[in-house]
Amino acid sequence: MSERLLWITEHYPPGRGGMATSCARQVRELRQSGRFVDVVVLGAAAQQMTPRDNGCDFLIPPDNEDGLAVNLAFAQLRPPYAAVVGFGASGAGYYATTFGTWLGCASVVLVRGNDLDRDWFHPTKSAWLHEAFARASAIGAVTPQKVDRIRRLYPGKPVEWTPNSVDVARWEALPADLRRRDEIRGLLRADGSKVIGLFGELKAKKRIPWWLEAVRDRGLLDKIRLLIVGTVDLPTAMILEDPAIAPRSLRLPFAGPEELPGLYRACDFVAIPSLFEGMPNVLLEAMACGVVPILSDAAIPIGDAGFVFSAEDREAAGEVTAQALAHPDLPAASAAAQRFVRETFSAEREREALLELVRLAAG
């Protein structure tokens, strides 16, 4: 396929959070493979047009007049396009399906975690989602669970799994990473204890208090240390500050990509006990560093590459965490985690899934 793609997003360039990282990676993979991709970024800090290899980035800032920014974005386009792709459903997906209709080409909506878990139930955003899904030529979703749910809501609509990817080679340890690992473990006094990492924006849906209660009930507090990188909500912060109900912990602010390999490697495990989840970059990045996951089944299926419990079962969360801590061969579990992401979530697989979805949409 040699036709151009138009990419609509509110999450770009990298540095603006996990979704921006995923969006930038997908655009980069497509451009590096020879695909021509124009990117329209709505909500940018300033207006700018930047030529890139195999495409242009059009940055469109918000405006105080309804509709002005979107119409300005449409005026920047360089059709014809094979398809318009919306990265995210309730905003970019709505714009992408509208632009696709106006341009007379196919449209693709890429569904992320919060699109279906949160925005579907929002009193105003849900209308945008309905319209985007109804108009889309094809829909991609970040987890198999979301694929199934959308198919049930829109029978007959082409909906496919478009997984994230991780470059395992990018996460190989440098000497500085190993020094940082040892420094962090020293600060945590981790000798004889296992370090469990909690990364990202630890808000209510992540259920850290719920998981810590399960850990406490199972009698595991003195067996673990916590490394927390990112932000925590108030209930989580209150628990972490009470040594009677939380293990020893070290809290650090959000870290850039250059810092994360050492921080991930300071951990034996990464915990993601979410009630609902998309496909967190933290999970794939940590596994690429050999960190073994402990997670609820709301996240992606990982087979035997980690320790999984039912998202509704607190007792199981404690029991599975205990099983992880008692694993007799942690290096083997670490190798299995790396092998899983290398084989299942490669850049090639992500790119081909996206291109196949475009082919499906274009018919």
Describe the 3D structure.
With 363 residues, the protein is of the alpha/beta class. The chain folds into two domains: 5-165 and 346-362, Glycogen Phosphorylase B (Rossmann fold, 3-Layer(aba) Sandwich), CATH 3.40.50.2000; 168-344, Glycogen Phosphorylase B (Rossmann fold). Helices cover 42% and strands 20% of the residues. It is built from 14 helices and 14 strands. The protein has helices at 18-32, 68-75, 89-103, 113-117, 125-135, 144-153, 175-187, 208-217, 234-240, 260-265, 281-288, 314-325, 330-344, 347-362; strands at residues 5-9, 37-42, 48-52, 55-60, 83-87, 106-111, 138-141, 159-161, 194-202, 224-232, 249-252, 269-272, 292-296, 307-309. The strands form two sheets. The protein has an eight-stranded mixed beta sheet, sandwiched between helices. A six-stranded parallel beta sheet has the order 11-10-9-12-13-14, sandwiched between helices. Helix 3 packs across helix 5. The chain is elongated. The mean pLDDT is 92.
Short description:
This protein is of the alpha/beta class and 363 residues long. The protein folds into 2 domains: 5-165 and 346-362, Rossmann fold (3-Layer(aba) Sandwich); 168-344, Glycogen Phosphorylase B (Rossmann fold). The chain is 42% helix and 20% strand.
